[in-house]
Sequence to fold (85 residues):
Amino acid sequence: MTRTNIYLEDRQTAILDRLAAEEGVSRAEVIRRLIDRALAGRDDDLAADLAAIDESFGALGDADILARGAGDREDHLTRMWQVAG
Fold:
């Protein structure tokens, strides 16, 4: 292996650390895996993915959005747990 130093934004470091903790590996291992994926060309569909996201904006423009107040989310989740239980 070759040691390489790079500068990362705080945001990038935080995300890498979260991924590393989730996968039980080091930050360096996450970076190596991401580089391997990019070099293998598995990100070829990125342009198509971004186009699909762009095309989806406004798709629910006419949907009725319910107004929510403080505590409404918790009330909804409580009802869902009662139904599931």
Notes: Residues 7 and 13 are 10 Å apart (CA to CA).
